[in-house]
Every structure is written in structure tokens, then in C-alpha cells.
């Protein structure tokens, strides 16, 4: 599945793809969110989880400029 197809999925469908095919790379606190970084095939995605609301707000492609926050993420 390519990035274009992934972006058209619902949050629930994106979470299913990540749980089935993704490799966990790390997690950080970022503003009011808990971000989890996953690698699916050759793409990286962040799960934006709001711990206050106990809800996943979004799943979107991870920007390379934020990788340094995850410590030892290999691209």
C-alpha cells in the first residue's frame, strides 16, 4: 500500500494496517500528545494519541525533521 492510498483510509483503518504490518520504532511526548512512530514497508507514520481524552486523534506520515526526537531511529 502506498502513501496515497494510506492517506485516504480512516483512522481506524490506518491503525489496523499499522498493527498488522508496522514495526514500532519509538514513542515521545510532543505538546499534548503521545506520538508513536511506526515503520510500514518503506514509510514512517506517527500515531497521535491524546492521553487526556484517551483517544487516537490522527495517524499521519512522520516528518523526517522530527526523527531525532525518537533516539536512534534508523531510516
Biggest β-sheet, characterized?
Answer: 4 strands, antiparallel
Classify the beta-strand content into a percent band. 35-45%
- Compute the separation of the termini in Å: 19 Å
Largest beta sheet: strand ordering = 1-2-3-4
Total E-strand runs: 4
- Summing up helix and strand content along with how strands pair, one would put the structural category as alpha+beta
Query: Can you write the helix and strand succession as a string?
Result: HHEEEE
Domains counted in the coordinates: how many?
A: 1
Oligomer: single chain
Spans of at least 5 consecutive residues whose pLDDT stays below 50 are none
- Sum up the overall morphology in one term: globular
* Number of DSSP helical runs: 2
Overall mean pLDDT stands at 91
- What's the gyration radius in Å? 12 Å
Give the % helix: 10-25%
Reconstruct the topology from this structure:
Blueprint: H1 3-7, H2 11-21, E1 23-30, E2 33-40, E3 43-50, E4 55-61
Antiparallel strand pairs: 1-2, 2-3, 3-4
What are the main properties of this structure?
4-stranded antiparallel β-sheet; 75 residues; 4 strands; 2 helices; alpha+beta
Description:
Strand 3 and strand 4 (55-61) form a beta hairpin. The two termini are 19 Å apart. This protein is an alpha+beta fold. The radius of gyration is 12 Å and the shape is globular. 21% of the residues lie in helices and 41% in strands.
Quick structural summary:
This protein is of the alpha+beta class and 75 residues long. The protein has helices spanning 3-7, 11-21, and strands at residues 23-30, 33-40, 43-50, 55-61. Strand 1 (23-30) and strand 2 form a beta hairpin.
